[in-house]
Amino acid sequence: VLYLFCAALTEHKILFLSSSYQRLTDACRALLALMFPLKYSFTYVPILPAQLLEVLSTPTPFIIGVHSIFQSETQELLDVVIADLDGGTVNVPECVHISLLPEPLLQQTREALSMVLDPELEVADLAFPPSAISASSLKMQDKEIRAVFLRLFAQLLQGYRWCLHIIRIHPEPVIRFHKVR
């Protein structure tokens, strides 16, 4: 999930494959939901019809879902990150370099996600673990995962105002992002 998240943030092409249309739609929507508060502004097609498979050769970034029947047509795509939802794999081609999150944010996010998805890990090493550890409901788990990614964005974007540069020589001040800082 973190590879797909970073691929979407760095504007790579992402293709979901599955034999279930529901799973394709859910996976595409989940990836967009994790990007909140940012909005994905490129091509987004949760279920691509067979007649439009040539769209996968576009040079622009996308998030597209394709039924796994057409997996053979996607094999020649060289610059597309392919997530096989049925097999549970993510294939990143050699020519694609995905910039991951900087450390220690990457490790903190992994740990937070693993605690949400498997809360027993938190007390696994205790000599006397508490008697009852209950997993969160699916609705609560969804909120916890969203909170992990929202906290990640808050940490990534903290201090952004320090990088703003105000140019006052124009009749109206112009705010630019100072890339060097």
UniProtKB/TrEMBL annotation:
<protein>
    <submittedName>
        <fullName>MTMR5 protein</fullName>
    </submittedName>
</protein>
<dbReference type="InterPro" id="IPR037516">
    <property type="entry name" value="Tripartite_DENN"/>
</dbReference>
<dbReference type="InterPro" id="IPR043153">
    <property type="entry name" value="DENN_C"/>
</dbReference>
<dbReference type="InterPro" id="IPR051696">
    <property type="entry name" value="DENN_Domain_GEFs"/>
</dbReference>
<dbReference type="Pfam" id="PF02141">
    <property type="entry name" value="DENN"/>
</dbReference>
<dbReference type="GO" id="GO:0032483">
    <property type="term" value="P:regulation of Rab protein signal transduction"/>
</dbReference>
<dbReference type="GO" id="GO:0031410">
    <property type="term" value="C:cytoplasmic vesicle"/>
</dbReference>
<dbReference type="GO" id="GO:0005085">
    <property type="term" value="F:guanyl-nucleotide exchange factor activity"/>
</dbReference>
<feature type="domain" description="UDENN">
    <location>
        <begin position="1"/>
        <end position="181"/>
    </location>
</feature>
<keyword id="KW-0344">Guanine-nucleotide releasing factor</keyword>
<dbReference type="InterPro" id="IPR001194">
    <property type="entry name" value="cDENN_dom"/>
</dbReference>
